Amino acid sequence: MTDRGTDIFAGLPPVPERVVADAAALDAALRTADRPFVVRGLIADWPLVQAGRRSAAAARRYILDHRRDVPFTVSVGANGSDGRLFYDAAMAMNFATFKARLDEVFAHIDTGERSGDPRPIYLASIDMQGYFDGLHEANHVDLGDRAPLASIWMGTRTRIAAHNDVPDNLACVAVGRRRFTLFPREQFRNLYLGPIDNTPAGRAVSMVDFHAPDFTAHPKFRDALRHAQVAELEAGDALYIPAMWWHHVEGLATFNVLVNYWWRTTPRWLGQPQDALNHAILAVRDLPEDQKRHWREMFDHYVFDNDEATTAHIPEQARSILSTLTAESAGRLRAFLLRALSR
């Protein structure tokens, strides 16, 4: 018999809340925060939030009024999945992905609401400015000098496995309700991550079912829960998730809309750390142990522990990529890597 939990959310401490009076106060809070925080009512005055408070159907009509006539990518899960968009028993996805017009997708959601169909329907990470006219302009958060990617997420009741994102994230609930369960970065070992090259949405996810955790198969998940926080958000509320924090996300209403903003504090021309990890798996992981130890020391020397002593013996004008990267030197390095990987 497995040791399965029943309700992991009961008793978890809530994510702390902050009050921000204006965009300057939000900017200051984001610049100094190294942990998640909730802002109640941050986007309460959005027209989209107001439409959703009238009804889910009114929110969908408002969104449709701004859509462009382009195909949208939609994921549709199976009945009996409890809204969980995840793997099936063979480690393939338990949902199908289609292209459809937004009015067609919303018509299926309308029908499901009337019939009580629990099948999950999910439109994930849709670029607001690329797929809509005026929706972003009428419904957005002033993030000062940041240049965020603004995305909208729409769907029925869904459960998205715990994962993390490289950028910082401000997640704003516009319609419905959402629950976030968050874990610090270092808890990745206790979350039992799945494959990194076969994922539901591009990032490795926890293999633990948060609605029925199997503590026999995943005993270290108890340790993760000791560090967890939970945030239950109503329409109008926002949650700041620092870069690389793990978060499990649930849409709790029959129709839910989230608008989120991703931004990085590093230059856009820097590479993606996940690409470096993938390449290290390809080039380093399966080497003999003595060679792996050497390469660990090399990574420490050039990447993790690098300081002035690393390059002090090289003339400054000759240090090339060992100097602080610029857009130009990063471009040269990227071109070099592309040539090397294509051999």
Automatic annotation (TrEMBL):
| Span of domain JmjC | 113-278
**Could you list the residue ranges that cross the membrane?**
none
**Matching InterPro entries, A to Z?**
Cupin_8, JmjC_dom, RmlC-like_jellyroll
> Which Pfam families does the record associate with it?
Cupin_8
| Highest taxon of the lineage | Bacteria
Q: Which PANTHER family match?
A: HYPOXIA-INDUCIBLE FACTOR 1 ALPHA INHIBITOR-RELATED, HYPOXIA-INDUCIBLE FACTOR 1-ALPHA INHIBITOR
Per its record, how is this protein called by name?
Cupin-like domain-containing protein
Species in which this protein is naturally found: Sphingomonas cynarae
